[in-house]
Task: structure prediction
Amino acid sequence: MSVLWWLVTLVKVGVIFGAVLGVVAYMTLAERKVSGHIQLRLGPNRVGPFGLLQPIADGLKLMFKEDIIPDHVDKVIYLLAPAISTVAAFAAYAVIPLGPPTDFFGLLPEPVPLQIADVNIGILYIFALSSMGVYGIVLAGWSSNNKYSLLGGLRSSAQMISYELSLGMSVVGVLMMSGSLSLTRVVEDQAGLWYVFLQPLGFIIFIIAAFAETNRLPFDLPEAEPELVAGYHTEYSSMKFSLFFMSEYAAMFTISAMAVTLYFGGWQGLPGLGTLGIPPVLWFVGKVAFFLFLFLWVRWTLPRFRYDQLMNLGWKVFLPLSLLNVLLTGLGLVLLR
Amino acid sequence: MEQFFFFLFAAGAVISALLVISRRNVMHCALFLVLTFFFVAAIFVLLKAEFLAAVQVLVYAGAIMVLFTFVIFLVHIPRTEKIRQTFRQKNLALALGLLLGLEVAYILYGTMAAPASLPAAAPVGAVGNTESFGVALFTRFLFPFEVVSVLLLAAMIGAIVLAKKEIDR
Result:
């Protein structure tokens, strides 16, 4: 591990972290813009050209708001919860490959992977982190000592556990085909054909479970406004509230990057056509942008599920279907190879 | 370097494990247990057993403990803190603790006396220990693996039967 390796890794960490923060900031604007246009409004357009400086204004506002810690909370856990949420959401990028190894136009003596760490358990690492993200929400709900927050936290823990199962099982199909848990290997394997064509059922389960995992509509029961005020973050104000907000968008970005990496060939170009002269990193960014838009689109289109519907769907439909997907994949692999 | 981190994580694991059994607030106990699992996972990483580390966090900290917190949610904590603690299983606990201590001492003595007799660790790096773990599970340890599967299935059916009785009533 030379000095250069440390330097390159530090730069990669800094750049990726900065990029994710930027994406999160502008996703809040995109959300308001997209929702505006879906509802035949314009969305924010006063701060800067086309409202482009809105996220900065929002950030400043949130930072200077009064930070209230209610009297009756479990203080340590109350303060810890937003931190857990944020760390779990942001740490997942470490293993997602953004592009093929590159030497940055001859700047570096040898090509470096466009990924912070290629660990051989990449997928499990992301799942482990996302299961830690649950604690942020659950603990926020519990430590606030508020009935609405508590109900939000309760719903969240049940919902996340249920859908994590389907999410994990749907990915097993991909793992069986690639034969590796390393995300770099999974992407390299899709040079010929994206896995979405071989795993259509798995992909559908994955993307629906992803909506439930990130608490987005139609599955945002932990913070359902009409029933629970604001759910688990009712008692949070100022920057602590915005940390929850940021981690929701960061989690959306992670799961979109996962969907692209696992099912849509990561940084690979179109199957059969190659990259068409567009840099692989842009392919990756473009595909992720599509999924981020899908998240917004669905939120402003579909109504919220009822809690019992959510549970029935998770356990009685998606879990059996994902098991069937594993069975079919195994059968296909045995018969076709 | 590696030894320093081992002692750091080991100390963390032991201290948080002690806090699990000494805190009065059950939620704090559960969270210290999660912390213990993390330190153990860190030790697995030091031993180059990344798969075990990830599964430790995913299954124990991520799934089982979340269900624990789910139950603790429904407990009124200030009331539980007033309950007098009892310690009726003192003799049994002492006997079992002694047995465990002897076992550990025996294993430690065995490895220190003949370090060469340890089975060579599976080669890691090129193949990745997930693969070697899977191969070992389906060849050498197939029978115990199947036994555990049947056990889990039985437990699952048992849970359903118990829950169903409540629903029928």
Chain B has a mean pLDDT of 82. The domain at 1-95 of chain B is CATH 1.20.120.1200 (Four Helix Bundle (Hemerythrin (Met), subunit A)). Chain B has two domains: 1-95, 127-169. The two ends of chain B are 61 Å apart (CA to CA).
